[in-house]
Amino acid sequence: MTECKKKALLTVAVALLSACKSSPPATGYLCIDDDSVLFVEWTQLQGRQIKGSIDVFVRTESGQFESALILFDGTLDKEDITLTYSDSASSTAKTTFTGSLKGDVLMFDPNLRGPVECHRATHEQKFDARQNLIWRTQAEKRKGAQAK
């Protein structure tokens, strides 16, 4: 093998290895508070139309966890976003959230208690945030049991 071919193969190998180590692109928006993790993502359809999901992970008052996946249709018009979903599979009632998307920050009010700020994130970051919520809850339970 010529020296030129060796250098070319080495260059390709380094490029492939560096691509493997790079983090995946951020595909959604992550919202975290003391008791919940939300992950919002969508696909752009035609024009302003979007279709997506809100992945919800919540700690209940009893310290248990509940999760849900809410599917929505919506619109994205420059910085204005609207997300509409059915309240249940058998219901024709719809709930609509409005918000704004500015750069890497999504602001909307999913629980009608005030807007939440979500930042662009990956699925890996979503799973890390869920795990951190579980660990915090377990630590709080241990601390409470030791205090008794």
Give a structural overview.
The protein is of the alpha+beta class. It has helices spanning 3-21, 123-147, and strands spanning 28-32, 36-44, 49-59, 65-77, 80-86, 94-102, 105-108, 116-121. The protein has a single domain (24-147), classed as Lipocalin, CATH 2.40.128. It has an 8-stranded antiparallel barrel with strand order 1-2-3-4-5-6-7-8. Strand 2 (36-44) and strand 3 form a beta hairpin.
Strand order of the largest sheet: 1-2-3-4-5-6-7-8
Q: What structural class do you assign from the helix and strand content?
A: alpha+beta
Shape: globular
| Residue fraction in strands | 35-45%
Cα end-to-end separation: 73 Å
What is the number of beta strands?
Answer: 8
Name given to the CATH architecture: Beta Barrel
